[in-house]
Every structure is written in structure tokens, then in C-alpha cells.
Amino acid sequence: MSAFEKAPAHCTLQHLDIEAVFHQVFESSFRTRLVGGGDEPIYRPTEDPLGYHEIVYTRDYAASALHEIAHWCVAGPERRQLEDYGYWYAPDGRSADQQALFERLEVKPQAFEWIFSMAAGRKFRVSADNLEAALGASDGFKDAVHLQVLDYCRLGLPPRADLFAQALANKTGLCNPLNPAYFCRDAL
């Protein structure tokens, strides 16, 4: 039985449900909106004091929405003032060295995404995001993501990630999105 199957039965949120939950929790307090339909994901800060920052996710993909929210939850106040948080990003087709750097930087976002996916009633797939180079997620990366999730289950999430995970869980009816029994390494 997979970790996903161990979680109590609850509904599965679609991309518009995820947008609604995000807006309920963060639109006013952080002046940030989640917007689907993008060809590529991007974070766009606003310079207008009355405007809204935008987290754009790919097309209508719920997994993209959750992944982009995870990056937003990792980014601190200074990074949230920069387009795409000012992060380095090498496109698909990365070398082995670039892929190793990518994996080091993606542990926390993908750990958040896994927790958000569980809370939203969705399956999570760890992503190496490097299809052209045919480099899948390494075992070390999968181990690191799993261990980070278990740390969050034991120690708790940072505030924004916790608010979002709890709001998703409230929507789906999942009692405890940080139950470590839901997160099995074999599921990756």
C-alpha cells in the first residue's frame, strides 16, 4: 500500500480549488495571486503598492500550482521582490554538475510540494526537471526530499507553508497533513 493510499479518504483538489485556497489565505495579507494558464511558470512581483504579486503556474496543472507555491513559501521577503525570486535556473538539458546543484536547491520546495500534494489529495512525483538530459531524480535527491519532509513532520513547517498546508487539509478533510506515515520513501 502506498503512502497516498494510507491517508484517510478525502477529496482531490483541482487547480481552481488550489487557487481559491491560496487566495483565501494569502491574497489580502501578502497581496499575492496565483494565476494559471502560463506557458512557463514565473513569479512576477509588482512595484505598485496597490497591485498584486503573481505566481503564474503552467496551464491548468495542479502540480505546477503546488510546486510554484512551494517556491513562494521558501522565498523570503527580499526574494519575493525579485522576478522568479532572483533564482538561478538552467533550462532542461542541464549537465550532471548543473543537475546536482539543481537538486540541492530543490529539496525544500519539493518537500513542501509533497506535503501540499498530500493535503490537496493529490499524488506527488519528485521532479528532476531535466528530460532532455535523460537524468531522472537521483536516489540521493529522493532521500533528501523524504528526510526533509520527515523533519517538517517532526518539527513543523515554516508559517506560510503551514498556513497553506492546513488550509488545503481543511478543504479536503485530511486531519493531519504532517502525519509521517503518509510519506514513504518508496513512493518516490
UniProtKB/TrEMBL annotation:
Pfam families: EpmC
InterPro entries: EpmC
Keyword Protein biosynthesis: yes
Keywords tagged on the record: Elongation factor, Protein biosynthesis
GO MF entries: translation elongation factor activity
Protein name: Elongation factor P hydroxylase
